[in-house]
Design a protein that fits this description.
Length: 332
């Protein structure tokens, strides 16, 4: 997703422009159909990272292809600058905005990742990031791999939704409220809400391995994509500096546990994360200098969370390795 600033002291995220949903029950204009759509993401973006993880865990790679925009963009939107000829090899576009304009000529709204694009027409279908991963779990069920976990179990949905709402407000979006605040008061309110929520989550996770029940759910995925970027970007760049993640023992162990779980750490490219945040947000980092640290190898150290029990994939199994063209560089 691309951060957009409001005209007020506090950061306010603009609503997504394309709220369509892809469904299996005929409730939308866009039916679930293998090969029809392409999921466009960026390694740098936490909102896109959710969909990358869910697609991996559910084994949807054969039916939903993935295009990967580079970490840098300008006012024209996310760009495929890491692909040959600076174009997505399937859609043939240089900027993601082109898919929005094909769907809506003259489009002047926000262009964000993740976006699902219809391959045959090249038209953007949806950038509804809040519902996209839930729909991958529920609407695409017929195409899940054998052994796919249930990331949004029906009996737990109310609890998952409640946690997701508070995590979104105070953590996922909270770091942006800190980083893009235009006034000291707005920054301090966001900062206090962020760390109050992290403290509460730490207390919850001290005695249980995952946020809801004894398996990985949508709630863990949504929290984790912010935690994994915390020290590399949010602690310094967004002034979320009460503590580093590595200084919060429970959350650091929890985050490492998931990083070392197939489908999580193998979606992360720390260099692209830093290139995006420090290279794109000129109003925060006008020099564009990208920091060399922190050393990412700590993510591979023992975490000890197995002692809390839990079954990462429930009655399912881990996903296989990522497809060759979707692999990230190993930690160095």
């Amino acid at each position: 997703m691309t951060a957009t600033q409001s005209g007020t002291e506090a950061f306010e995220r603009e609503p997504v422009a394309l709220t369509e949903r892809i469904t299996s029950d005929g409730s939308s204009a866009w039916p679930v159909e293998p090969g029809r759509y392409r999921l466009v993401v960026a390694r740098a973006c936490p909102w896109a990272n959710r969909s990358v993880i869910v697609r991996r865990l559910l084994g949807l790679e054969p039916v939903l292809s993935m295009g990967i925009a580079g970490p840098l963009h300008d006012e024209r939107s996310w760009r495929f600058h890491n692909d040959p000829d600076n174009r997505d090899p399937v859609l043939g576009i240089e900027y993601l905005r082109e898919a929005y304009e094909k769907a809506h000529p003259g489009f002047d709204g926000g262009v964000t990742v993740p976006t699902v694009v219809e391959v045959a027409t090249g038209k953007a279908v949806t950038n509804n990031f809040q519902d996209l991963t839930l729909d991958l779990s529920t609407q695409w069920r017929a195409y899940h791999r054998d052994g796919a976990p249930d990331l949004y179990p029906e009996a737990r949905r109310a609890e998952i939704d409640e946690i997701n709402e508070s995590v979104y407000d105070d953590v996922n979006n909270g770091v942006y409220k800190c980083g893009f605040a235009k006034g000291q008061g707005a920054y301090e309110r966001a900062y206090r809400a962020l760390f109050a929520r992290l403290d509460a989550l730490s207390e919850r996770l001290e005695t249980q391995r995952y946020l809801v029940g004894d398996t990985i759910t949508e709630a863990d995925i949504r929290l984790w994509v912010t935690l994994v970027r915390f020290d590399a970007a949010y602690h310094g760049h967004f002034k979320c500096n009460r503590q580093k993640l590595t200084e919060m023992p429970v959350l650091w162990a929890y985050a490492r546990d998931l990083f070392q779980t197939p489908g999580f750490g193998d979606t992360i490219d720390f260099e692209q994360i830093k290139q995006h945040y420090y290279g794109v947000h000129a109003e925060i980092n006008p020099t564009g200098i990208v920091p060399l640290g922190p050393d990412p190898r700590g993510w591979l150290t023992p975490h000890g969370r197995e002692e809390l029990g839990g079954r990462p994939f429930g009655d399912g199994t881990p996903p296989g390795p990522p497809p060759e063209g979707e692999r990230v560089p190993p930690l160095a």
